[in-house]
């Protein structure tokens, strides 16, 4: 039932407005439920109820306030760079030439003029 049909009802206008408000509330509730369900599926902490998204050792150590000690300086030479030579190319395969002239075909000489050449098929 759309809003126009509700307001054309023969009942009083406050009843129609209550119906419109109730329909809007139901639609809002449905949209909110769909959005919350989508957020619950996309949140890793809700997807894993055992860990609650806090990591392995949460709660097993003192909560100390960490101060920023400045930049970290690493002394010593960096690890050597290992250069791996490229593998050799595959061996080249030489095939026979792709084109060879066809062998010569020797045909029978043409018949003499006036001689009929026919198939010799005996009829029974």
General description of the model:
By secondary structure, this protein is mainly alpha-helical. It has a domain at about 10-45. Helices cover about 30% and strands about 0% of the residues. It has three helices and no strands. The chain has helices at about 5, 15-40, 45. It is flat, with a radius of gyration of 46 Å. The mean pLDDT is about 75.
Topology summary:
Elements (H helix, E strand, L loop, with lengths): L2 H5 L5 H30 L1 H4 L77
TL;DR?
With about 120 residues, this protein is an all-alpha fold. Helix content is about 30%, strand content about 0%.
What attributes characterize this protein structure?
single chain, 124 residues, mainly alpha, flat
Largest sheet: none
Mean of residue pLDDT? Answer: 75
Helix content: 25-40%
Would you identify the regions where 5 or more consecutive residues have pLDDT less than 50? none
Strand content: under 5%
Rg of Cα set:
46 Å
Calculate the terminal CA-CA distance, rounded to whole Å: 94 Å
The class by helix and strand makeup works out as mainly alpha
**Topology as a string of helices (H) and strands (E):** HHH
Count of DSSP E strands?
A: 0
Count of helical stretches? 3
Shape: flat
